[in-house]
Amino acid sequence: MAGKPTSAPGTGILLVTANVGSLFEDPENLQKTWLREFYQTVNSHKPHFLALHCQEVGGKNYEESMTHVDSFVKELLSSDAMKEYNRARVYLDENYKSKEHFTALGSCYFIHESLKNIHHFDFKAKKFKKVLGKEIYSDTLESTPMLEKEKFPQDYFPECKWSRKGFIRTRWLLADCAFDLVNIHLFHDASNLVAWEKSPSVYSGTRQKALGYVLDRITDQRNEKVPYFLFGDFNFRLDSKQVIESLCSSATMQTVRATDTNEVDKVIFREMDNDRKVVLQLEKKLFSYVNQNVFRDNNGTPLLEFDKELSVFKERLHELEISFPPSYPYSEDHNEGKQYMNTRCPAWCDRILMSASAKDLVAKPDGEDKSISYDNIGPNVCMGDHKPVFLSFRITTGTGKPNANKHKCCVLQ
Protein backbone atom coordinates (compact mmCIF):
# COMPACT_ATOMS: atom_id res chain seq x y z
CA MET A 1 0.00 0.00 0.00
CA ALA A 2 2.76 2.47 0.87
CA GLY A 3 4.30 2.21 -2.58
CA LYS A 4 7.56 3.69 -3.70
CA PRO A 5 8.39 7.28 -2.83
CA THR A 6 7.80 9.66 -5.71
CA SER A 7 10.61 10.36 -8.14
CA ALA A 8 10.44 14.09 -7.39
CA PRO A 9 13.85 15.52 -6.47
CA GLY A 10 14.99 15.33 -2.88
CA THR A 11 14.28 13.13 0.11
CA GLY A 12 10.64 12.95 1.19
CA ILE A 13 10.02 13.67 4.89
CA LEU A 14 6.73 13.14 6.72
CA LEU A 15 6.39 14.41 10.30
CA VAL A 16 3.25 13.42 12.23
CA THR A 17 2.16 14.37 15.73
CA ALA A 18 -0.68 12.51 17.45
CA ASN A 19 -2.02 12.56 20.99
CA VAL A 20 -3.15 8.94 20.97
CA GLY A 21 -4.64 8.66 24.47
CA SER A 22 -8.15 7.93 23.17
CA LEU A 23 -6.91 4.94 21.16
CA PHE A 24 -6.19 3.02 24.34
CA GLU A 25 -9.47 3.95 26.04
CA ASP A 26 -11.51 2.40 23.20
CA PRO A 27 -9.07 0.33 21.11
CA GLU A 28 -11.69 -1.83 19.39
CA ASN A 29 -13.50 1.10 17.80
CA LEU A 30 -10.73 3.64 17.31
CA GLN A 31 -7.44 1.93 16.52
CA LYS A 32 -8.47 0.36 13.21
CA THR A 33 -9.85 3.67 11.89
CA TRP A 34 -6.85 5.60 13.17
CA LEU A 35 -4.37 3.24 11.53
CA ARG A 36 -6.30 3.21 8.25
CA GLU A 37 -6.21 7.02 8.04
CA PHE A 38 -2.55 7.09 9.05
CA TYR A 39 -1.61 4.55 6.38
CA GLN A 40 -3.56 6.51 3.77
CA THR A 41 -1.56 9.61 4.65
CA VAL A 42 1.70 7.67 4.35
CA ASN A 43 0.58 6.22 1.03
CA SER A 44 -0.44 9.64 -0.25
CA HIS A 45 2.89 11.30 0.54
CA LYS A 46 5.20 8.28 0.19
CA PRO A 47 8.01 9.60 2.38
CA HIS A 48 11.52 8.18 2.52
CA PHE A 49 11.66 9.09 6.22
CA LEU A 50 8.63 9.06 8.51
CA ALA A 51 8.56 10.38 12.08
CA LEU A 52 5.52 9.75 14.29
CA HIS A 53 5.47 11.56 17.63
CA CYS A 54 2.83 10.29 20.07
CA GLN A 55 1.69 11.68 23.39
CA GLU A 56 -0.42 10.02 26.13
CA VAL A 57 0.79 6.55 25.09
CA GLY A 58 -1.38 4.10 27.02
CA GLY A 59 -4.13 6.64 27.67
CA LYS A 60 -5.34 7.76 31.08
CA ASN A 61 -5.54 4.22 32.47
CA TYR A 62 -2.04 3.35 31.37
CA GLU A 63 -1.55 0.65 34.01
CA GLU A 64 -4.26 -1.41 32.31
CA SER A 65 -3.67 -0.21 28.74
CA MET A 66 0.05 -0.75 28.14
CA THR A 67 -0.70 -4.14 26.58
CA HIS A 68 -2.72 -2.30 23.90
CA VAL A 69 0.34 -0.14 23.22
CA ASP A 70 2.44 -3.19 22.39
CA SER A 71 -0.12 -4.51 19.90
CA PHE A 72 -0.50 -1.04 18.34
CA VAL A 73 3.27 -0.78 17.78
CA LYS A 74 3.53 -4.35 16.44
CA GLU A 75 0.79 -3.54 13.94
CA LEU A 76 2.69 -0.44 12.80
CA LEU A 77 5.91 -2.39 12.35
CA SER A 78 4.46 -5.44 10.59
CA SER A 79 1.54 -4.13 8.52
CA ASP A 80 1.47 -4.50 4.74
CA ALA A 81 1.08 -0.74 4.47
CA MET A 82 4.51 -0.27 6.06
CA LYS A 83 6.31 -3.29 4.60
CA GLU A 84 8.68 -1.18 2.49
CA TYR A 85 9.93 0.61 5.60
CA ASN A 86 12.63 -1.91 6.44
CA ARG A 87 14.30 0.04 9.24
CA ALA A 88 12.67 1.52 12.31
CA ARG A 89 13.40 2.97 15.71
CA VAL A 90 10.63 3.05 18.30
CA TYR A 91 11.09 4.73 21.67
CA LEU A 92 8.22 4.27 24.14
CA ASP A 93 8.19 5.76 27.61
CA GLU A 94 6.15 3.08 29.39
CA ASN A 95 7.75 3.20 32.84
CA TYR A 96 4.71 4.62 34.66
CA LYS A 97 6.02 3.47 38.05
CA SER A 98 8.66 6.22 37.93
CA LYS A 99 6.67 9.39 38.60
CA GLU A 100 9.67 11.67 38.32
CA HIS A 101 10.55 10.33 34.84
CA PHE A 102 7.34 9.07 33.17
CA THR A 103 6.17 11.16 30.20
CA ALA A 104 4.01 8.67 28.20
CA LEU A 105 5.73 9.90 25.05
CA GLY A 106 6.35 7.64 22.07
CA SER A 107 8.70 8.54 19.22
CA CYS A 108 8.57 6.24 16.19
CA TYR A 109 10.77 6.53 13.10
CA PHE A 110 10.47 4.54 9.86
CA ILE A 111 12.96 4.49 6.96
CA HIS A 112 12.00 3.40 3.45
CA GLU A 113 14.12 0.73 1.79
CA SER A 114 15.02 3.12 -1.05
CA LEU A 115 16.80 5.49 1.36
CA LYS A 116 20.30 4.08 1.42
CA ASN A 117 22.08 6.34 3.84
CA ILE A 118 20.63 7.49 7.14
CA HIS A 119 22.36 7.99 10.47
CA HIS A 120 21.08 8.40 14.01
CA PHE A 121 22.98 10.36 16.67
CA ASP A 122 24.42 8.77 19.81
CA PHE A 123 24.34 11.58 22.40
CA LYS A 124 26.72 9.74 24.71
CA ALA A 125 29.38 8.89 22.12
CA LYS A 126 28.75 12.17 20.21
CA LYS A 127 28.72 10.16 16.98
CA PHE A 128 26.24 9.40 14.22
CA LYS A 129 25.58 5.70 13.69
CA LYS A 130 24.10 4.04 10.62
CA VAL A 131 20.51 2.85 11.09
CA LEU A 132 20.05 -0.88 10.45
CA GLY A 133 17.08 -3.13 11.18
CA LYS A 134 14.12 -2.47 13.46
CA GLU A 135 14.53 -1.82 17.18
CA ILE A 136 12.09 -1.01 19.98
CA TYR A 137 13.13 0.62 23.26
CA SER A 138 10.80 1.07 26.22
CA ASP A 139 10.68 1.30 30.02
CA THR A 140 13.94 3.04 30.98
CA LEU A 141 14.67 5.41 28.13
CA GLU A 142 16.94 7.42 30.43
CA SER A 143 19.74 4.94 29.71
CA THR A 144 19.27 4.97 25.91
CA PRO A 145 22.09 7.04 24.36
CA MET A 146 20.22 7.57 21.07
CA LEU A 147 17.89 10.12 22.61
CA GLU A 148 17.54 12.73 25.30
CA LYS A 149 14.43 12.55 27.45
CA GLU A 150 13.42 14.97 30.16
CA LYS A 151 10.42 15.59 32.31
CA PHE A 152 9.95 19.21 33.28
CA PRO A 153 11.31 20.22 36.70
CA GLN A 154 8.68 19.69 39.38
CA ASP A 155 8.35 23.39 40.19
CA TYR A 156 7.19 23.91 36.58
CA PHE A 157 4.12 21.78 37.18
CA PRO A 158 0.94 23.54 38.30
CA GLU A 159 0.64 23.04 42.07
CA CYS A 160 3.85 20.95 41.79
CA LYS A 161 1.82 17.82 41.01
CA TRP A 162 3.51 15.36 38.67
CA SER A 163 1.77 14.74 35.35
CA ARG A 164 3.06 13.26 32.09
CA LYS A 165 4.67 16.34 30.58
CA GLY A 166 8.14 16.55 29.06
CA PHE A 167 10.05 15.99 25.84
CA ILE A 168 12.16 13.49 23.87
CA ARG A 169 14.82 14.62 21.43
CA THR A 170 16.50 12.60 18.66
CA ARG A 171 19.00 13.69 16.00
CA TRP A 172 19.24 12.45 12.42
CA LEU A 173 21.55 12.79 9.43
CA LEU A 174 20.19 12.26 5.92
CA ALA A 175 20.63 13.93 2.52
CA ASP A 176 23.77 15.61 3.91
CA CYS A 177 21.62 17.34 6.48
CA ALA A 178 21.58 16.94 10.26
CA PHE A 179 18.49 17.94 12.25
CA ASP A 180 16.80 17.38 15.61
CA LEU A 181 13.27 16.04 16.08
CA VAL A 182 11.68 16.90 19.43
CA ASN A 183 8.52 15.21 20.75
CA ILE A 184 6.87 17.56 23.25
CA HIS A 185 3.85 17.62 25.55
CA LEU A 186 3.02 20.82 27.45
CA PHE A 187 0.57 21.60 30.27
CA HIS A 188 -3.19 21.77 29.67
CA ASP A 189 -5.81 24.20 30.97
CA ALA A 190 -7.12 22.71 34.21
CA SER A 191 -10.18 24.99 34.43
CA ASN A 192 -12.11 26.97 31.84
CA LEU A 193 -13.16 29.38 34.59
CA VAL A 194 -9.55 30.14 35.54
CA ALA A 195 -8.49 30.34 31.87
CA TRP A 196 -10.88 33.18 31.09
CA GLU A 197 -10.11 35.30 34.17
CA LYS A 198 -7.39 37.29 32.46
CA SER A 199 -5.57 37.72 29.16
CA PRO A 200 -3.20 35.99 28.66
CA SER A 201 -4.25 33.20 31.01
CA VAL A 202 -2.17 31.84 33.85
CA TYR A 203 -1.95 28.54 31.97
CA SER A 204 -0.38 30.12 28.89
CA GLY A 205 2.33 31.51 31.19
CA THR A 206 3.09 28.00 32.46
CA ARG A 207 3.34 26.67 28.90
CA GLN A 208 5.55 29.58 27.89
CA LYS A 209 7.96 28.83 30.71
CA ALA A 210 8.13 25.12 29.82
CA LEU A 211 8.59 25.73 26.09
CA GLY A 212 11.36 28.22 26.81
CA TYR A 213 13.03 25.54 28.94
CA VAL A 214 12.93 23.05 26.03
CA LEU A 215 14.31 25.56 23.54
CA ASP A 216 17.16 26.43 25.89
CA ARG A 217 17.97 22.74 26.43
CA ILE A 218 18.09 21.80 22.76
CA THR A 219 20.24 24.80 21.79
CA ASP A 220 22.70 24.74 24.69
CA GLN A 221 26.43 24.07 24.39
CA ARG A 222 26.36 20.31 24.97
CA ASN A 223 25.91 19.48 21.30
CA GLU A 224 26.47 21.05 17.89
CA LYS A 225 23.56 23.31 16.95
CA VAL A 226 21.47 21.97 14.06
CA PRO A 227 18.04 22.80 12.61
CA TYR A 228 15.23 21.46 14.78
CA PHE A 229 11.57 20.51 14.46
CA LEU A 230 9.33 20.47 17.56
CA PHE A 231 6.10 18.59 17.10
CA GLY A 232 3.67 17.37 19.70
CA ASP A 233 0.76 18.45 21.86
CA PHE A 234 1.66 22.00 22.88
CA ASN A 235 -1.78 22.44 24.46
CA PHE A 236 -1.83 25.96 23.02
CA ARG A 237 -5.29 27.48 23.60
CA LEU A 238 -7.11 30.46 22.20
CA ASP A 239 -7.00 33.49 24.47
CA SER A 240 -10.12 32.54 26.45
CA LYS A 241 -11.00 36.00 27.71
CA GLN A 242 -10.76 37.55 24.26
CA VAL A 243 -12.49 34.75 22.35
CA ILE A 244 -15.40 34.64 24.82
CA GLU A 245 -15.78 38.42 24.64
CA SER A 246 -15.91 38.09 20.85
CA LEU A 247 -18.35 35.16 20.78
CA CYS A 248 -20.62 36.71 23.41
CA SER A 249 -20.24 40.40 22.54
CA SER A 250 -23.99 41.07 22.61
CA ALA A 251 -24.88 38.73 25.47
CA THR A 252 -25.51 39.36 29.15
CA MET A 253 -23.52 37.47 31.76
CA GLN A 254 -24.85 35.59 34.78
CA THR A 255 -22.50 34.25 37.45
CA VAL A 256 -23.50 31.26 39.59
CA ARG A 257 -21.60 30.64 42.83
CA ALA A 258 -21.23 27.45 44.82
CA THR A 259 -23.34 27.59 48.00
CA ASP A 260 -20.65 26.12 50.26
CA THR A 261 -17.55 28.05 49.06
CA ASN A 262 -19.10 31.08 47.31
CA GLU A 263 -16.60 30.53 44.48
CA VAL A 264 -17.74 31.00 40.89
CA ASP A 265 -19.08 27.64 39.78
CA LYS A 266 -20.69 28.56 36.46
CA VAL A 267 -20.93 31.48 34.06
CA ILE A 268 -23.88 31.75 31.67
CA PHE A 269 -24.07 34.13 28.72
CA ARG A 270 -27.59 34.84 27.37
CA GLU A 271 -28.94 36.75 24.44
CA MET A 272 -30.55 40.04 25.46
CA ASP A 273 -33.75 39.17 23.59
CA ASN A 274 -34.79 35.97 21.76
CA ASP A 275 -36.21 34.59 25.03
CA ARG A 276 -32.79 35.11 26.61
CA LYS A 277 -31.46 32.03 24.87
CA VAL A 278 -28.20 30.64 26.33
CA VAL A 279 -25.24 31.47 24.06
CA LEU A 280 -22.43 30.00 26.17
CA GLN A 281 -22.27 28.06 29.41
CA LEU A 282 -18.89 27.91 31.09
CA GLU A 283 -17.83 25.64 33.95
CA LYS A 284 -14.52 24.17 35.06
CA LYS A 285 -14.74 21.40 32.45
CA LEU A 286 -17.65 22.66 30.34
CA PHE A 287 -17.50 24.96 27.33
CA SER A 288 -20.92 24.71 25.71
CA TYR A 289 -21.30 27.21 22.88
CA VAL A 290 -24.54 27.45 20.91
CA ASN A 291 -22.94 27.25 17.44
CA GLN A 292 -20.07 24.81 16.91
CA ASN A 293 -19.91 25.77 13.22
CA VAL A 294 -17.86 28.79 14.27
CA PHE A 295 -14.98 26.39 14.84
CA ARG A 296 -15.53 24.48 11.57
CA ASP A 297 -16.53 27.07 8.97
CA ASN A 298 -13.50 28.17 6.94
CA ASN A 299 -11.62 25.61 9.07
CA GLY A 300 -12.07 27.93 12.04
CA THR A 301 -9.24 30.10 10.74
CA PRO A 302 -10.99 33.44 11.56
CA LEU A 303 -10.35 32.44 15.19
CA LEU A 304 -6.58 32.27 14.62
CA GLU A 305 -6.40 35.92 15.70
CA PHE A 306 -6.95 34.58 19.24
CA ASP A 307 -4.20 31.96 18.86
CA LYS A 308 -1.41 33.98 20.46
CA GLU A 309 0.81 31.69 22.51
CA LEU A 310 3.38 31.17 19.78
CA SER A 311 3.89 34.91 19.25
CA VAL A 312 6.12 35.07 22.34
CA PHE A 313 8.61 32.85 20.47
CA LYS A 314 8.36 34.48 17.04
CA GLU A 315 12.14 35.02 16.92
CA ARG A 316 12.88 31.37 17.71
CA LEU A 317 10.03 29.28 16.31
CA HIS A 318 8.27 29.24 12.95
CA GLU A 319 5.21 27.51 11.56
CA LEU A 320 3.64 27.13 8.14
CA GLU A 321 0.21 28.65 7.62
CA ILE A 322 -2.58 26.77 9.41
CA SER A 323 -5.48 25.85 7.11
CA PHE A 324 -7.11 23.06 9.15
CA PRO A 325 -9.69 23.25 11.96
CA PRO A 326 -8.76 23.26 15.66
CA SER A 327 -7.25 19.85 16.45
CA TYR A 328 -8.88 19.42 19.90
CA PRO A 329 -11.24 18.45 21.64
CA TYR A 330 -13.08 16.17 19.23
CA SER A 331 -15.80 13.76 20.31
CA GLU A 332 -14.49 10.31 21.17
CA ASP A 333 -17.69 8.72 19.85
CA HIS A 334 -16.53 6.70 16.84
CA ASN A 335 -19.69 7.72 14.97
CA GLU A 336 -18.87 11.44 15.20
CA GLY A 337 -15.92 12.52 13.09
CA LYS A 338 -16.40 16.28 13.05
CA GLN A 339 -18.15 16.98 16.35
CA TYR A 340 -16.30 18.77 19.16
CA MET A 341 -16.82 17.85 22.79
CA ASN A 342 -18.35 20.55 25.00
CA THR A 343 -15.46 20.35 27.44
CA ARG A 344 -13.01 22.99 26.18
CA CYS A 345 -12.95 25.78 23.65
CA PRO A 346 -11.61 24.16 20.45
CA ALA A 347 -7.97 25.08 19.81
CA TRP A 348 -4.93 24.21 17.72
CA CYS A 349 -3.14 22.14 20.39
CA ASP A 350 -1.26 19.85 18.01
CA ARG A 351 1.41 21.63 15.97
CA ILE A 352 4.62 21.24 14.01
CA LEU A 353 7.05 24.07 14.72
CA MET A 354 10.60 24.64 13.55
CA SER A 355 13.70 26.75 13.92
CA ALA A 356 14.53 29.35 11.26
CA SER A 357 17.19 27.02 9.81
CA ALA A 358 14.68 24.15 9.69
CA LYS A 359 12.17 26.35 7.90
CA ASP A 360 14.86 27.02 5.30
CA LEU A 361 15.01 23.25 4.70
CA VAL A 362 11.23 23.07 4.22
CA ALA A 363 10.24 26.20 2.34
CA LYS A 364 11.88 26.83 -1.01
CA PRO A 365 12.65 30.46 -1.90
CA ASP A 366 10.33 30.58 -4.90
CA GLY A 367 7.40 29.27 -2.88
CA GLU A 368 6.39 27.06 -5.79
CA ASP A 369 7.09 23.68 -4.24
CA LYS A 370 3.74 21.88 -4.29
CA SER A 371 5.13 18.98 -2.26
CA ILE A 372 4.82 20.94 1.01
CA SER A 373 1.67 20.09 2.96
CA TYR A 374 0.66 21.04 6.52
CA ASP A 375 -2.68 19.51 7.44
CA ASN A 376 -4.59 17.15 9.71
CA ILE A 377 -5.34 13.43 9.36
CA GLY A 378 -8.83 11.91 9.31
CA PRO A 379 -10.85 15.14 9.08
CA ASN A 380 -14.15 13.29 8.59
CA VAL A 381 -13.74 10.32 10.94
CA CYS A 382 -13.17 9.90 14.66
CA MET A 383 -9.45 9.80 15.47
CA GLY A 384 -9.97 10.29 19.21
CA ASP A 385 -10.10 13.64 21.00
CA HIS A 386 -7.13 14.93 18.97
CA LYS A 387 -6.80 14.98 15.18
CA PRO A 388 -3.22 14.06 14.20
CA VAL A 389 -1.37 16.82 12.34
CA PHE A 390 1.30 16.26 9.68
CA LEU A 391 3.92 18.15 7.70
CA SER A 392 5.16 16.70 4.42
CA PHE A 393 8.12 18.20 2.55
CA ARG A 394 11.28 17.30 0.65
CA ILE A 395 14.91 17.94 1.51
CA THR A 396 17.17 18.49 -1.47
CA THR A 397 20.56 16.83 -1.04
CA GLY A 398 23.07 19.41 0.01
CA THR A 399 20.42 21.78 1.42
CA GLY A 400 21.92 21.41 4.85
CA LYS A 401 25.44 22.37 3.84
CA PRO A 402 27.59 23.57 5.44
CA ASN A 403 25.47 22.17 8.26
CA ALA A 404 26.26 18.54 7.41
CA ASN A 405 29.88 18.85 6.36
CA LYS A 406 31.02 19.44 9.91
CA HIS A 407 29.18 16.27 10.95
CA LYS A 408 30.81 13.94 8.48
CA CYS A 409 33.87 13.66 10.68
CA CYS A 410 31.76 12.22 13.47
CA VAL A 411 29.85 9.56 11.54
CA LEU A 412 30.35 5.93 12.46
CA GLN A 413 29.50 3.56 9.60
UniProtKB/TrEMBL annotation:
Pfam family, one: Exo_endo_phos2
Residue span, Inositol polyphosphate-related phosphatase domain: 9-401
Broad class of enzyme this protein falls into: hydrolase
Spans traversing the lipid bilayer: none
GO annotation, biological process: phosphatidylinositol dephosphorylation
Any one GO molecular function term: inositol-polyphosphate 5-phosphatase activity
E.C. no: 3.1.3.56
Gene3D superfamilies: Endonuclease/exonuclease/phosphatase (3.60.10.10)
Family the UniProt entry places it in: Belongs to the inositol 1,4,5-trisphosphate 5-phosphatase type I family.
Protein name from the UniProt record: inositol-polyphosphate 5-phosphatase
Species the sequence originates in: Denticeps clupeoides (denticle herring)
Lineage: Eukaryota, Metazoa, Chordata, Craniata, Vertebrata
